[in-house]
Amino acid sequence: MRAISLFALVALLWAGRSAAQYGTSGVLTLSGEGPAETGASMLRFLKVFETRLGVPARITYRVTTSVAADASISADVAAQTAASPSKLQFAMTEQPLSSAQRASFSGNAAVVGSSVHFPVYVNSYGLFYNVPGNRVTPLNITACLAARILTGDVQEWTHPDFLDKNPGFVKTGTDSYKITVLMDTATSGSTLAVLGWLAKACPSVPVTYTGVRADAVAVGSNMIASLQSTGYSFGFAMGSVGRAASVSEFAVETATAGQYLQTGSTNTTNMQVALAAAVPTTLSGDYSTATVVSLSADRVAPILTVGYLVTKSDWSTEGLEEGQRGELVRALCAFFQSSTITSSSTGMLNDAGLLALGSTLVSAVNITASSVFVSHPSAVKYTTTDGVGANVVSSTRSSYEVTTYQDLTAQMAAMKKQLDVGAARVMRGVGSSAVSLFMWRVFGELKGRSTTPLHMVYRAAGSGAGQGEVLAKANKYQSLVDFGASDTPMPDATFTELTNTAKVPIVHIPILLAPMNFFVNIPDSALPSRLIKMSPCTIAKIMQADITSWSHADIAADNGGVALPDQPITVFYRQLSSGTTAVITEYLNRACAGTWRLGSGGLLSNWPPTFKPTANAANMSTSVFTTSWSIGYMDAANGLDVNLIEVAVRNKDGNYVTSQTGDVPAAATALFKSDAWPKSPLLSFASVSCLNQPGANTFPIVAMPFMFVRTDLTSRGDSGALLVAYLTFMLDTFAQNTIAKALGFEPLPTEVRQYTTERALPLLQVDTRSKAWVFESGSTLSGGKGSTDNVISGFGGNYENLNAQGFADFYKAYNLAQNRAQATKAASGGNSTGSGSGSGGNYTAVLSGIPPDLIDQLDNLQKQVDILKAVAITAAVFGVFGLSLAIFTSCRMFVHMSLWGGAGAAGPGSNSMVHPASISILGSNGGVRRQKSISNFSVGEGSMGSEKSV
Ligand SMILES: *[C@@H]1O[C@H](CO)[C@@H](O)[C@H](O)[C@H]1NC(C)=O
Ligand SMILES: *[C@@H]1O[C@H](CO)[C@@H](O)[C@H](O)[C@H]1NC(C)=O
Ligand SMILES: *[C@@H]1O[C@H](CO)[C@@H](O)[C@H](O)[C@H]1NC(C)=O
Ligand SMILES: *[C@@H]1O[C@H](CO)[C@@H](O)[C@H](O)[C@H]1NC(C)=O
Ligand SMILES: *[C@@H]1O[C@H](CO)[C@@H](O)[C@H](O)[C@H]1NC(C)=O
C-alpha cells in the first residue's frame, strides 16, 4: 500500500512535471510586448521560433512602443504576487528601463532576482529631407545643426551655417527655402533615438520634445509619406525604412569630426567592435545610462539604439508553469543569437533592416546569461541542437505557414524580376511638332540599341501642350508626362507658377538648333545668280507691306544698287499658331526694333490684308514654290528641299549670310557665352534666345527648342531612369550630328551640350530602386555584359537612321520631281495634258539637277507602282483568289505611296504638292520637319555611335 502510494506520488509528480511543458491548457503561452518600428519583424521571428519548438507553445506579442513596453513589464512585475504570477514574460525595448522601473523588480518581495537586459539587435536611425534639387549629392548635417533646426534657431536651408557644411547645395534662387520640421510622436523609437543622440552629440543645444519649434508638423508614423509629399521638409526614421522608400537621406556627422555618413554606409565590422565596448554585458545591471549613439569608430552612423529583450532573471521561486515559461524565454534568447537571426547574409535581422550585434558581444552575453538566469528546478530545459525531441528548438523543424511565407516571398521576388525584365520601360512626352521627327527617330535609335524593351511616345500636340502638360495646373500640378518640349523657352508666368506656386523645380534641356529663314521665288531670268541680300529692316518693311515691289530702292540698296523688276511682292504668312511665326517675328522685333510694328508671337492677327495665308509649313513652301515673285518664311530645311532661293540676311556684324553660308551653331555659342544664358539650369530661360547673335559669320535666325523636365522624377518609377538615359543619348554625337542633321537641323555646340550634361542632368532625381542605364561602347562592358538588362549598346542600331543619307536623298529627289511637275503644270495654266509637263507627264523634263542614279530609282518606283496598279485591277477581276492578291498588292502600293508621299496624292489643280507633312497624322499645327539631304553621313562618331565594323 505504502509502495503503491509512493508510486502514485512519483507518478503524480511526474505528471505535473510533464504537464509543465504543455501548460495547464496543453499549450504553453508566453506574452511579450514591444515597439512598432520592429513589430512586424518581431512577429515573424516569434512565429519561426514557435515552429521550431517540438512542444506546442503560443507567443502573443503586443505591438506598442518601447516606452509602453518598459512601463508594462515593470508594472506587471510590481503587481506580481505569489498567487498571481506575471502576465507579461518579456518586453522588447530600444529604451532601457529607468532605474525606478528596474527597482520594481527588486522592490517586490514576491519577485526574486532582478531585471535582465538581453541585447538582440542594433537599429540605425537616419535623418531625411526633401529639398528639391539636392538629392544626388547628399546634404551634410551635424548634431548641432539638427538640434538648431528642431529648436527653430535655423529656419532656412540656406542658413549660412548650413551652407557652410554644404558647399554643393543647389538653389534655384527663387525659393524661400523655409524648413518644415516633421515630428513623430514623443514616445516613438525614432524620436527617442534622435533626441538621445542630440543629448550626447550636441549638449550645448538642449532639445526636448516639447522644446521643438511650435510650427513643427506632427505626422506620427506617417513620416515617410509626409517627407515625400512635403517640399523643404526635415524628418527622421529608421534608416532602412527611409532607404527602401528612396527618401533623400542626410550624411550625418559621425563621432569623427568632419566625417559625414548615411546609415547604409556604416562599416559594420567597426560598429560591432565599438558595440562590444559600449554595451554592458552584466545583463542584470542598471542599463538606464547605457547608450550606443555617436560611437567612437570610423565610418559608423551615429544614431544607433540597441534592441533589448527585458525579462526577469530568477524563475526558480515561481510556480512550475511560470518557471517553464522562463525556460522558453531563455530559449528565445538563444534563438535570437542563432545564425537564423544574426547571419550577415541570410539572417532575419538583415531582412528586417536591422543590424547584428557581432560575435564578440554575442559570446560575452551568452556567457553571462548562463549565470544570470536561474531556472525553476523542475522546469524542462530546451536545447537548440538540431533533433527530433519535443524540447528541442530544431533548425530543421518548420511549418506550412513559415515555409509557404518564405516560398511566396522568394517567388514574388522572382516574378517581379521577370516582370521587370520582360516589361517595357515607358516614357511619355508631348510638345512641339517641329521637333517631332527628331524625337521619333531618336526613339527608334534607342529602341534598336536597348537590351530592354522600350515604349516611348511623343505626342506632337504643339509647343503650348509641351508647356501646359508639364505645368499640369488642371491636374493639381501632377504631371502625366515625363517631359514637355517647345520651340521656345517656358514663359516667365508659367515658370513662376510651376516653381514658386507649385514648388516644382524644372530644368530646360536644349534639344537642337533649327535655322529658319525667308525664301523667295524670283524667276532665274531676273536673278541668275540666285543670290538676294536683305537687311533685317528691309525684311521687316516687306513683312508689314511698307515695301510692296521688288524694285524698291531698299532692296536694291542691299544688293549693290541693282534693282529687280517692278513686280508686286506676294507675301505668304502662317494663318494658324506656328512656332516659325513666333521665331521670325521675334527676330524682326530684336533686329529691327524701330521699324517692325506687328509685334511677335505664334499667331499674329494684324497681317496686312493683301498677304496670303497658308495652313502649315508644307503649304508655305509649296505656295512660295508655285508663286513667282513671292516671299515666305519657313525652317531652312523646308525651303532648301524645294530648291527655293534663300535670302542672305544681314547679321548683327553686318555680313550677309544664309543658313548654308553662315554658321548656325555659332548663334548658340555666342548666346551661351553671353550674360543672357542663365547661371543655373534651374532658373527661368524665358528670355533666352539665339536670335540675332553677334559674330562675323553667325547666322541670325536660329531657334533653340527646349525640353522641360521636372527635377524630381522619383515618383515616376523606371521612367525617370529612362528619361535620363534618353537625354544623355539625345545630347551625344550620334543623335546631334547624324539624326538631327539628316532631318535638316543643326547640332547644339559642344559647350551647350557639355553644360547640360554636367549641370542639368545631375539635378534629375530618379527613383533609386530603378536600374540605371549603361551605355556600351567599343571598350566597355567586356565579357558579354553588353547583353544584360538596361544596356544601350553602341553595337545596336536602327536601319532607318543608318541609311538616313540614302533615304534623305531619295526623298528629296522625289519631292523635287513632284514639285517641279506641279510647278510646270501651274505655269502652263493647269493643263496636265500639255506636252512635256504635268504631274503624270514627262518626268525626264523635270528631273534636271537630280543625280542620275536617283532618277533611275524613281523610274523603277514609278514602274513598280504602275505594275502593281495593273495587277491589283486584274486580280480584282479574278474572284476570291484574286481578292487576296488584290489586297496584298494594294497594301504594297499603299506602302510605297505612303512612304514616298503618294503619287496620286496631289490632285489636278490642287495646291497640295507632295509633302511628307501631308502624310503625317497631326493636329492643326502639323507642320513637321522633313528630311533634308546631307552630304557626309557617317556612323562611328562619338562614344555612343562607336559602331566601327559589324
Ligand atoms: C558634404 O560634405 C562632403 C565632404 O564631406 C562634400 O564632398 C559634399 O559636397 C558635401 N555635400 C554638399 C551638398 O555640399
Ligand atoms: C571597415 O573598416 C575596417 C577597418 O577600418 C577595414 O579594414 C574594412 O575594410 C572596412 N570594411 C568595409 C566593408 O569597408
Ligand atoms: C552559448 O553558450 C552555449 C554553451 O553555454 C553554447 O552551446 C552556444 O553555442 C553559445 N551560443 C552562442 C551563440 O555563442
Ligand atoms: C491643253 O493643251 C492641249 C495641247 O496643247 C490643248 O489642246 C488644250 O486646249 C489645252 N487645254 C487647256 C485647258 O488649256
Ligand atoms: C520629255 O522631255 C525630254 C527632255 O525635254 C524630251 O527629250 C522627251 O522627248 C520628252 N518626252 C515626251 C514624251 O514628251
From TrEMBL:
This is PBP domain-containing protein. It comes from Chlamydomonas reinhardtii (Chlamydomonas smithii). The keyword Signal applies. InterPro entries: PBP_domain, Phosphate-bind_PstS. Belongs to the PstS family. GO terms for biological process: phosphate ion transport. PANTHER family: PHOSPHATE-BINDING PROTEIN PSTS. Keywords: Membrane, Signal, Transmembrane, Transmembrane helix. Residues 1-20 form the signal peptide. The keyword Glycosyltransferase does not apply. The chain crosses the membrane at residues 867-888. Residues 45-336, 423-682 form the PBP domain. Coiled coil: none annotated. Pfam families: PBP_like_2 (PF12849).
